[in-house]
Amino acid sequence: MRERKRPEFPKRAVVTAGMPYGNKELHFGHVGGLFVHADTYARFLRDRIGKDNVIFVSGTDCYGSPIAANYRQLVEEGKITGSLEDYVRKNYEKQKEVLDKYDMNLNLYAASGLDRAGEIHKEVSEKIFNTLYEHDYLVKMSTPQFYDPDFKVLLNGRQVVGKCPIDGCQSDKAYADECALGHMYMPNELIDPKSVLSGKKPELRDVTNWYYKLEDYTEALKGQMDYLKQHSTARKYLIKTIEEFLKQPIIYVKRKQLEDGVASLQAKLPKHTIIDEPKKPSITFIFDNLNDRDKAREVLDSMGLHFRTGKTLVPFRLSGNIDWGIKVPEKEGLDDLTFWVWPESLWAPISFTKTYLESIGEDKDEWKNWWLSEESKVYQFIGEDNIYFYGIAEMAMGLSLLGIDSKDQVDWEHVNLPHLVPNNHVLFMDKKASSSSDIKPPMAEELLDHYTAEQLRMHFLSLGLAKKSVSFMPQVYMPEEERQGPDTVLKDGNLLTNVFNRLVRSCFYTAQKYFDTKIPHGEVSEEILHLSKDAVLNYEMHMYRHDFHRIVYVLDSYIRKLNKYWVNHMKKADTDENNDLRKQVLVDAFYGVKSALTLIHPIAPTSCEMVRDYLQVSENIWNWDYIFEPISALMDDVATHELKYLEPRIDFFKKHESQFK
Ligand SMILES: [Zn+2]
Asked: How far is CA 584 from CA 520, 569, 614, 616, in A?
């Protein structure tokens, strides 16, 4: 057999999962859309490159106006007492508890505003701000912010709703400067703004904030996309989504408004080019820079013309004026600003890595060896709506912090920015979680009343969120009359609880009955060696590419073939009373079970540990250095090695108790 090229993994790795907000418990989508994938990958890497070479961190996103607003509302309704911090802490602890119930093995699940991680995060935030400021990547800008004259307050981002100004946007909600689909714009661009306090159109007041000069990095980011297309496993839709933002500033004006013709309008606008196709209802005006586009917007506004803007990079706001946030270092007399929660949450995983390193007695400055070293790689599992923040704002700021200027030629071969793994949404019963529906989407914890953590882990991995949104349709949440056929959520879990569980048990019972509770010695057959190697190499490649649903296919095919091999040959051995054949099949089956266990371990760790305990083999069974070794390589003393006795009717991979009714 020709040797296949195997993927290369880094020496060290950091895995992060998008941070849940501190105003809620975990929703099924947090677990099913992100954490299961991140945890499976982190567990795989620990097996593949060594337990001590992987740090998996995430945490509660503590700050931000929605959290403060929810808190105030609950206090007003008399539903909670205590401080805002108490409220966030309660949610943080609940999130942590639920992640534990799902067998998530994070090195640290922290909170950006609490305890030691909160302290370190303040230091990191200050340091990053000062570095960006000192190297002239920040700009102080007065921009209009919404103000509600009835309530006499400046409104925060979420207190204003309207329509997204980005051409073609399908979002159902848009806030002061971002829409529900993650488009960014300036507040004065929002269409039909309404204050959620008074319900009236708010006024605009100028407020001064710090902005990061994100738009300067447009060309650099284009270069990064070209590099990623050639040299990485970055998902295609990630690159496509990012590239949509890397366009020149554009304004679309409906042709029918221009009674005096295009030429008279063109004369009033700053330097631009136009695309004027008679068949299209809009004329496209392309500008060299944001400044010119904004001058053009003023001209169009003054003429009373309607228009839409195209996606383009705009300065990225770093600060805001809500109290519940980390204080921004005072510069140039601006002394009452706090960090906007988005930028601060982008560097929170660095703060968490430092916190973790300190907690295990290492120097927290070692974080650089994990985040920046060429021997290391950072993998960030994020939601599709957050690509703008992680894929654009974070990458550009990363370049700035590395001292790479926007005009510099970037050597992408040696600039080690995080690798993003964006997942699409898991929809509940074909609907987005935010949309109204008769059936309320379940919280992550509730699902465990009906399914085991391992059944759900298998199912969520099988959904294929790498390409498109997929519906999650647990039968227990459907009305009785709509429940047809088997529960789709159990399909992939059944592979473990039925097929594989039966095979493992059969191996043990056969060893107990015919071979003194020992694994017989012997050469594994070519057929099984070949089958196993193929499964291992396919699995490894899919893991490398974060194609989790393909991993589930590989396991399905492999385990079913092993099982078929067992059933066919054992039947013949029993019929012929052929103990040599029985021995050979058992040798082969134990080898297959051993290989499959290593592959299943990142997904169903608790059950796999139970099998290991009964096999009485060392933890090296999880270590990929042993992936092709015979099972005897895992025994202390091959001559005397005995299995742990398996009583009748014991299951390794268990169903949920509710499934026995
Ligand atoms: Zn939008």
From this structure: 8, 9, 21, 21
